[in-house]
Amino acid sequence: MNPIKAANPINVTKGAFGLAGSAVGLAGTVVRATTHLMLSVLDELGQDTGTASKSSVDDAHIPGPTVAPTEPHAPEEPPVDVVGEALAAEATAERGEGSAGAGMAHEPRGASRDEEHGDAGLQRAEVDEISEEATAALEGDVEPEPHLSEPLLDPGDAEAMASELQMMSRAADPDKG
Q1: Which of 100, 99, 122, 98 is nearest to 111 (CA)?
Q2: 177 residues of the chain, pLDDT tens digit each
Q3: Residue of 28, 36, 37 whose CA lies nearest to 58
Q4: How far apart are CA 169 and CA 154, in angstroms?
Q5: Which of 20, 121, 160, 168 sits between 20 and 30 A of 1, alpha carbons compared?
Q6: CA gap 34, 30 in Å, rounded
Q7: What angle do CA 26, 27, 29 make, to 5 degrees?
Q8: Which residue blocks in 46-176 are alpha helix, DSSP H?
């Protein structure tokens, strides 16, 4: 070993603390093992060990959680026979019996309860009217209103925008060939 490192006070202090830590760990292990051995011998002999020494051993070994066997409580209500109810509902539907309001999954039904009772914002009758108006407008039966036939932009403004777009496209072209 290098004599300079052996005389270094930091290395000497580090070694002393390491040795002291090992000695404390060894002493703790010896005490814990001896206590555990003494408690098991006293337990085999049938003598009462007291609670103080028992708790120190339990703290040292820290066993896992203790599982207490318990039985689940019976439900307050009997279980609902879902399968039996579904089969009975299917049988009544096949016989044609059943409520008129509720249909099967494959039968058409209103999107919401409000629509069925006429409280929805857009009723099917309004949708039919809108589709009829659109069909008539596409076929040319209806003249468009005057504000719909006017151009949105002045022709001069449209030409200026087109030329500016063309100039910007040329400027952005990476191959300005």
Answers
A1: 122
A2: 677 776 788 888 888 888 888 988 988 999 999 998 888 888 888 755 455 445 554 455 666 677 777 877 777 887 778 888 889 888 888 887 755 555 556 655 555 566 666 666 666 667 788 888 888 877 876 666 776 667 788 889 999 999 999 999 888 888 875
A3: 36
A4: 23
A5: 20
A6: 6
A7: 65
A8: 51-61, 82-95, 113-116, 124-139, 146-149, 155-172
Torsion, Cα of 102, 106, 109, 113 (10° steps): 60
CB 103 within 8 A of CB 109: yes
Opening angle at CA 112, ends 109 and 116, nearest 5: 65
User: How many distinct helices (H) and strands (E) make up the chain?
Assistant: 8, 0
Domain borders along the chain are 3-61, 119-172
Contact 115, 124 (CB under 8 A): yes
Distance CA 137, CA 133 (A): 6
* Spatial distance between the Cα atoms of 168 and 177, rounded to a whole number of angstroms: 15
Dist CA 133 CA 113 (whole Å) = 27
Give the integer Cα–Cα distance in Å for 161 and 110.
49
